[in-house]
Write a structure and sequence with these properties.
Blueprint (H helix, E strand, L loop, with lengths): L2 H35 L4 H15 L5 H8 L9 H24 L6 H16 L7 H33 L5 H42 L10 H17 L2 H10 L5 H20 L6 H14 L8 H32 L1 H24 L33
Helix pairs in contact: 1-2, 1-4, 1-7, 1-8, 1-9, 1-10, 1-11, 1-13, 2-7, 2-8, 3-7, 4-5, 4-7, 4-12, 4-13, 5-12, 6-10, 6-11, 7-8, 7-10, 10-11, 12-13
Amino acid sequence: MTAEFVVLLVVVVTALAFDFTNGFHDTGNAMATSIATGALKPKVAVALSAVLNLIGAFLSVEVAATVAKGVVDLGTVGGEDLLLIVFAGLVGGILWNIATWLFGLPSSSSHALFGGLVGAALASIGVNGVVWDGVLGKVLLPALLAPVIAALVATVGTWSMRRLTRDISEERRDRGFRLGQIGTASLLSLAHGTNDAQKTMGVIFLALVAHGSITADTEMPFWVKFACAVAIALGTYLGGWRIIRTLGKGLVEIAPTQGLAAESSSAAIILTSSHFGLPLSTTHVATGSILGTGLGTKGAEVRWGVAGRMVVAWLITLPSAALVGALCWALAHMIGGLGGVLFVFTLLCGLSLFMWLRSRKEPVDASNVTAEWDGSLVPAASTPEPVVQEGRP
């Protein structure tokens, strides 16, 4: 077993780890509204989403092709150099995903990945190593348009559904829309699988090309599809409760009518983008749709402070992940060879464990994810009482 093959194995494992974090980070995009309205029980929702993400991953490879060939210029780098770029980019994406999950911020896993790859490519090759047309046309431009379009569609959809059902009693209307949400949430999970699992497939494809196992014109191997589908499904099943709480309770108080409108508009936009090979941020789409339902509902409260924090996270995702990707590349390159890759991998494991342990101090899970929003991510009822030592106030 050569050192280069071990590096390839580490890169593939890291890519699947990113896919796993993508799953639990983005579960809220598909299921937050259904959980918030009571259409689905929390654990049932994440299990259903996991199965449909698994199925959706096999439906298309258009997005994977964009990631594999539309970010890093394969004509300027190859071999171990390309493997190191892919590895450093993945580390940047994973660390950003876990950090934003810790704070309950639904940022874009897609942009975290692309940012990490771009940062590592810039540090390694320079500006000529990035396919700027691909980044601008298939990453940045859709990122700007997607939440706006989703918000407009959801606003019109919410207003229209309320208008059409205005003569039906609220109890009967809500019951019907909750049943409809089961279908729309399922479709959204399927759409998420067709878009997000593809991104990791594209990254592993890049690594295999760098190693020489396949060429740039080879068809996507089945084992890559299967491994990525399973990884994102397992991540989805864990729930990502912190993100689900922010989207389901922190942004807008969601009624069943709004939930159905948000899920329908998000699914339609994501499926369309997957068809055209656009690696769209499902987070941007889902958040835009939820905001749109608040705008389309008379008297609804939109918490603009929470929305503002999300927008800030969106704006800094690409540059932040790029910076981490560049630093990881520099560190691994400075140490050199297999030792450098293993050192950065160990650092990734340590930082990830630290953030997970930090999250356990203020847990958000299926038992408190739908608690009333009191201005903070962790419900007040679940915050541990301060320990008062005897003899002290």
